[in-house]
Amino acid sequence: xxxxxxxxxxxxxxxxxxxxxxxxxMRGMTAQIIxxxxxxGGQLTALYPEKYIFDVAGIPQVLAxxxxxxxxxxxxxxxxxxxxxxxxxxxxxxxxxxPRHGSRSLSDAFDHxxxxxxxxxxxxxxxALRRALVWARDF
Length: 139
Description:
By secondary structure, the protein is α/β, with parallel strands linked by helices. It has a single domain (6-132), classed as FAD/NAD(P)-binding domain (3-Layer(bba) Sandwich). It has five helices and eight strands; from the N terminus they run E-H-E-H-E-E-H-E-E-E-H-E-H. Helix 1 (15-26) runs parallel beside helix 3.
């Protein structure tokens, strides 16, 4: 587990989170993704990898799994970590993310006494967490 302070922690490894990881790297920021799923790609990977996607700018149609593969390749250009099978349970204090109990590697990195990011970006999150993040600002 990388314990270095990141400029941005992205919750959700779907298309938006993967592009956010890439864009952070393009802007010279350090970032990481935290996602509960075992593979990057969000719903595209988990629910319909064989479905064609028609609303990607400049691409008439692309299979979901192919889009995810390209996004992962693009995000990987800056070698920023993607923490899979890690679920964020909520925020502790104003400047840390606390994972659900049992995620041992993240428990070490995200305890309530630590600050492991400068900005938080919820690319995809359960509605309860989304409500909890309404107050999360750019610190």
